[in-house]
Design brief:
about 180 residues, mainly beta, Porin, 8-stranded antiparallel barrel, about 10% helix
């Protein structure tokens, strides 16, 4: 793509879109369970707990729109401290994009319904017909119980590309909102 700037960090959609709000509500009704929300609080972030995460949404890269599907797996090595690995595939765009992201996250498991979290990650992005890209970043947000074994997290993520040349990329960093659906196993 000589002479054309490539997209920088891939961008997730704004959560103000009404379609996304409806999709989130439907998703919560389908997978959240109808049990009391406090049932999820007992031991959800304790040492030895295994979590799985569903990743979905849409994003933009290289001036193209994508549908994103993925899954994550996390294990609490200490009370509140999770080590995880996420995988995403970006569909319906011109270039095939896949991402693998190891991460670490700490959740303050207080008696309150809202559980603050902070974390850091490294991300390897594989892009068809382009050089692979590495990025790293951090996140912060709040988890809230939403069913017997479901927690919903809402937070902010800062992501920056390694070895980024702004003469090639439109942007070398991005800040975006995340919504996390985390299930205790």
């Amino acid at each position: 793509m000589a002479g054309t700037k490539q997209g920088g960090c891939d961008r997730a959609p704004a959560l103000t879109d009404t379609r996304w709000r409806r999709r989130i509500i439907i998703f919560l009704l389908l997978v959240g369970g109808f049990g009391p929300a406090t049932a999820a609080a007992a031991g959800a972030f304790d040492k030895g707990t295994l979590h799985t995460t569903i990743i979905g949404g849409n994003g933009e890269a290289f001036e193209d729109n994508y549908f994103i599907l993925g899954v994550g797996l996390g294990y609490y090595v200490l009370d509140g401290l999770e080590i995880g690995l996420d995988y995403e595939t970006w569909l319906d765009g011109d270039a095939d994009i896949q991402k693998v992201s190891p991460s670490i996250r700490y959740v303050w498991d207080m008696d309150a319904a809202l559980k603050p979290y902070v974390g850091a990650f490294y991300r390897r992005t594989y892009i068809e017909e382009f050089d692979d890209r590495d990025s790293y970043g951090y996140r912060a947000g709040l988890y809230m119980p939403a069913g017997r074994s479901l927690y919903i997290g809402v937070g902010l993520v800062y992501d920056t590309l390694r070895n980024c040349d702004e003469s090639i990329y439109l942007s070398c960093s991005d800040t975006y909102t995340e919504i996390v659906f985390s299930f205790s196993l």
